[in-house]
Amino acid sequence: MTTVRHSYVEETRTVVETADLVRRGELAAREAVAEALDRIGRLDPELGAFVHVDPDGALARAHEIDELVANGGDPGPLAGVPLGVKELHAVEGWPFAMGSVLHSGRTADHTSTLVERAVAAGGVPVGSTASPEFGRASFTASALHGVTRNPWNPALTPGGSSGGSAAAVAAGMVPMATGTDGAGSLRIPASYCGLVGFKGTYGRVPRGPRHWGTAENDHYGVLTRTVRDTARFLDCVCGADEYDRSSLPAPGEPFETRLASVGLRGLRVAWTPDLGNAPCDPEVAGVVGAVATRFVAAVGARRVEPALNIEDAAGVAFRTLSVPDVHAELRGVSSERLDDVHPTVRRYGEAAKALGAGALVDGHRARARLVAELARAFERFDLLLTPATQVPAFPAEGPMPTEIAGQRVDHWGALAVTFPFNLSGHPAVSVPAGTAGGAPVGLQIVGRRHEDLLVLAAAAVEAMSSTSG
């Protein structure tokens, strides 16, 4: 077990607490933002969560909110809440390197829809949080920005690719920070940092206005400390977006107000540490499995066998369908400059040169088989529980694990319980489940497509029981 060197975790006001105080005029938005900026200044030199901070812009926005409240106005459900923005999400006028030396010095000329909507709801962006290059790793380190560290133990990674956002929230620098999830990049950092990381049904959070991905694996979302905070953020940013053809209409009623009204008693719940084909660290399986058992008993659910075995072709399909997205970032880059990018990213580029129509067809067919397998599985159960990652947090500098439970694995080995639900588009969340290897570890709760509320409600129950010990 890794020894904890020092904990930088700070308990601060939640999203809901901050916003409600600001709306009532009991807390100035400028005070909330100033506190966040102070914590960033104190803690971030050690943790490396932020790659850009905009104190002037944040304080000016907070001043606008305070004036609105003073004049009897309502800034919105996120009033005055400091917001970290993953550097893969554009904010007009801010640096937009996406963790890559290839884009060092680039400035965004637009703002991502979810950031725009969060600001419209009263949120205050304070800066950009770190990502590995183009978000293509489950630890957060890049040649451009250096290493991001876990607030629970700086020797360890906060996960990736939304590692900067997770570190910022876990350390109390901000109560919420945006993230992306293409293979587990919200859920894995949430797991390693003791947070809530929710990947909604594909299209639940819009990805406009200039999302050009072709793999249809990536989901946008947020990292917070509570399920209610996540629900409030979702209520502010969900809804159809003309710039995203996959975006879904907003739910008829807010997630936040319905969390406690969802009936969980009698649900059929399945637990698997490995989806039938993925090695899982015994300590992780033991810790998370105990929480899964406790959850079933706590809600009066009925445990059933998962009878799942995700075929290896799903992993091949994921890699194949992901290649064009990375190729789009590397297309036209000289071979000399390619030497500067991370080897994993380079391998994507090399794979793109050999990618043919047959491989793409095979990838889409494997995805269709996975969707069918999960559709049949969710006829047997209502919720599927797994670890949010099969390994404890590893060294902050990387590399990704090459062995799990005595079995050799490739780059995707630590993602085997998360990426299938990116391929299929199912809603999934990680909630704290205890510790393993000197850092937090999460329970993943997966539901049927479009049953986001059920997944959030189940997560809220487990988060409350985890908090109470």
UniProtKB/TrEMBL annotation:
The lineage of its organism: Bacteria, Bacillati, Actinomycetota, Actinomycetes, Pseudonocardiales. The keyword Cell division does not apply. This is Aspartyl-tRNA(Asn)/glutamyl-tRNA(Gln) amidotransferase subunit A. Its EC number is 6.3.5.6, 6.3.5.7. It comes from Pseudonocardia parietis. It is an enzyme of class 6 (ligase). SUPFAM superfamilies: Amidase signature (AS) enzymes (SSF75304). Belongs to the amidase family. It comes from the Bacteria.
